[in-house]
Design goal:
- The chain is an alpha+beta fold.
- The protein contains three helices and seven strands, in the order E-E-E-E-H-E-H-E-E-H.
- The strands form two sheets. It has a four-stranded mixed β-sheet. The chain has a three-stranded antiparallel β-sheet with strand order 2-1-5.
- The longest helix has 11 residues, at about 35-45.
- It is globular and about 30 Å long.
Amino acid sequence: MQFICPTIGEDHEKDFLVCGSIDNFRIIVFSSLDEYEKGIKHLKIADYNPTEVSAELFVELSKNDDAFDGIILNIHNENKVIDKNDIIEGLFI
C-alpha cells in the first residue's frame, strides 16, 4: 500500500510533516493525491511537496525508531490515528 506524505527538502534529506515532539511524533499521511491536496489546503501550509511512501517504511520506523508513535491518516477529514503497535501488526493496511 502506498501513502502520500507532505515532505520538505530533497533526495535523502526529506523531512516529513509530523505532530508531536522530537521524542514522540506521528507522521501526517494521506491515502491519495486528492486527499493530500485537500489536507494541505485544510492545514494551510506551503513549501511541502507530496512524496509517495510505502507502508513498509512505517513498519520499519515502528520497529526501529523509539520516538515514532504512528501515523495520522487524512488529518483534514478522517483524522485517524494509527499507533505503532497496529502498524507492526499490519492492522492499518
